[in-house]
Amino acid sequence: MISLFFSLLAMIILFFTNQMTASLCTQKEIPEDRQPGVFRTINILITILLISSYIEVLFT
User: Fold this and answer.
1) CA–CA distance, 53 with 50 (Å, rounded to integer)
2) Which UniProt keywords apply (predicted)?
3) What's the Rg (C-alpha) of the chain?
4) How far apart are CA 38 and CA 1, in angstroms?
5) First vs last Cα of the chain: how many Å apart?
6) Is the entire prediction scored with pTM above 0.85?
7) By the 8 A CB rule, do 38 and 46 touch?
8) How would you classify residue 30: left for phi > 0, otherwise alpha for psi between -120 and 50, otherwise beta?
9) Count of CA atoms in the C-beta half-sphere (13 A) of 41
């Protein structure tokens, strides 16, 4: 049950993080060729945080 809830929450967090990243790229006028790198970096870091949070909840 907790894994289903956490998975849904993680998808929502990633969705809103990507929306905020798109706003950041627009506001800071980041060139189109650098935007995929910005998205990739932020998504990887958020995914690492979500996985570590899930492991912490799972084993405590």
Assistant:
1) 5
2) Membrane, Transmembrane, Transmembrane helix
3) 14
4) 33
5) 16
6) yes
7) no
8) beta
9) 6
CA angle 9, 44, 54 (to 5 degrees): 40
Task: From residue 39, give the alpha-carbon distance in Å to each of 8, 11, 13, 49.
Answer: 20, 15, 14, 15
- pLDDT digit string (tens) for the chain, length 60 residues: 888 999 999 999 999 999 999 999 999 999 999 999 999 999 999 999 999 999 999 998
How far apart, in whole angstroms, are the C-alpha atoms of residue 12 and residue 20?
Answer: 12
The answer to whether 42 and 16 have CB atoms below 8 angstroms apart is no
Secondary structure of residue 46 in the 3-state scheme: helix
